[in-house]
Amino acid sequence: MAAFRLFLFFFFLLFYLQPSRSHESCHPGCDLLVPIHFPFQMMSNPPENRCGYGGFTVTCKNETRNILTFPFSGDFVIDSISYFSQRISITDPCNCIARRLLQGFNYSDTPFQPLDTRNFTFLNCTSDAPVFQSPGGVSPIPCLSSESHSFVALPTERVGASNTSSCTEAVTFMHPSLDDSIKDSILLTWKEPDCGRCESDGGFCQYKYDTSSEVSCFTPFDH
Ligand SMILES: *[C@@H]1O[C@H](CO)[C@@H](O)[C@H](O)[C@H]1NC(C)=O
Ligand SMILES: *[C@@H]1O[C@H](CO)[C@@H](O)[C@H](O)[C@H]1NC(C)=O
Ligand SMILES: *[C@@H]1O[C@H](CO)[C@@H](O)[C@H](O)[C@H]1NC(C)=O
Ligand SMILES: *[C@@H]1O[C@H](CO)[C@@H](O)[C@H](O)[C@H]1NC(C)=O
Ligand SMILES: *[C@@H]1O[C@H](CO)[C@@H](O)[C@H](O)[C@H]1NC(C)=O
């Protein structure tokens, strides 16, 4: 029995010590529901701690939200991260994803990309336009619409089949999903570093050596 306890003690010691020195000194982010860890890292971590991978740097806003900044599209709030499936869901800090897409969502120079894209056309309609009427009516985008004008976005290939009388076509933009309508968040994926398998096996990724960019998987059972 004593031997078994000793075993347990060392087992847990091993388990807790396994995350290397640097892993322990990495800030977990400012939204406890969305823990930040490798390949993501907080901007506040000193570079020598090597907490994350290039392009995965997160900042804090209002001490409650993790923010990811896209060089050409600005700030988005991180809604959730799936380290297993290597997917991230982001939202607009002002809760109007449609406005951000309309401005042209550009994910160049980031490690992230949409799973798929589709062209959407943005229409400016009167609130009683046939496009809003059932059957098959669509809903106006609340954060952009006013009393006098309602805005709607349709997959471009569907515009021809819709009754767009009382609407004017504004612009065509890239929608980062195959959905028929604009949702509250944008789902993106990343390919490198490939740590999904490691995470689903109960491990975590980290830099292999103090200097190289090589990543390897650590599990509680290593060594
Ligand atoms: C931060 O808080 C201020 C005041 O409460 C608010 O006006 C602002 O929109 C917030 N910013 C974000 C990114 O949530
Ligand atoms: C994103 O913006 C940059 C700078 O304007 C441009 O070079 C790049 O082609 C854009 N990428 C996409 C996918 O539109
Ligand atoms: C979207 O439109 C652009 C420009 O018209 C076109 O090059 C592109 O292939 C379209 N994308 C899709 C997914 O249909
Ligand atoms: C929408 O259309 C109305 C009338 O056609 C116009 O007055 C208004 O400025 C338009 N709004 C936008 C954002 O294009
Ligand atoms: C579109 O809706 C208007 C107003 O309800 C109607 O007069 C018109 O016939 C409709 N057009 C088509 C092509 O269904």
Structural features, described:
It is a single chain. The protein has 223 residues and is an alpha+beta fold. It folds into two domains: 19-115 and 185-223, no CATH class; 118-175, no CATH class. The protein has helices spanning 2-17, 21-24, 97-102, 156-159, 196-200, and strands at 41-42, 57-61, 65-70, 74-82, 87-91, 112-114, 118-126, 149-155, 167-175, 186-190, 204-207, 215-218. Strands 1-2-3-4-5-10-6 form a seven-stranded mixed sheet, with no helix packed on it. Strands 8-7-9 form a three-stranded antiparallel sheet. Strand 3 and strand 4 (74-82) form a beta hairpin. The longest helix has 16 residues, at 2-17. The protein is elongated. The model is unreliable at 6-22 (pLDDT under 50). One 2-acetamido-2-deoxy-beta-D-glucopyranose binds at residues 117-119.
Briefly characterize the structure.
Keywords: Glycoprotein, Membrane, Metal-binding, Signal, Transferase, Transmembrane, Transmembrane helix, Ubl conjugation pathway, Zinc, Zinc-finger. With 223 residues, this protein is an alpha+beta fold.
Distinct helical segment count:
5
> Any idea what the radius of gyration is?
23 Å
Average pLDDT rating? 87
Q: What percentage of amino acids are in beta strands?
A: 25-35%
Overall number of structural domains: 2
* Helix and strand pattern: HHEEEEEHEEEHEEHEE
Bound molecules: 2-acetamido-2-deoxy-beta-D-glucopyranose
Q: How many runs of DSSP E, i.e. beta strands?
A: 12
- Name the shape in a single word: elongated
Tell me about the largest β-sheet: 7 strands, mixed
Cα end-to-end separation: 25 Å
List low-confidence stretches: 6-22
Strand order of the largest sheet: 1-2-3-4-5-10-6
**Helicity, in percent?**
10-25%
Structural classification: alpha+beta
Protein name: Wall-associated receptor kinase galacturonan-binding domain-containing protein
Main location: membrane
Membrane topology: Single-pass membrane protein
Keywords: Glycoprotein, Membrane, Metal-binding, Signal, Transferase, Transmembrane, Transmembrane helix, Ubl conjugation pathway, Zinc, Zinc-finger
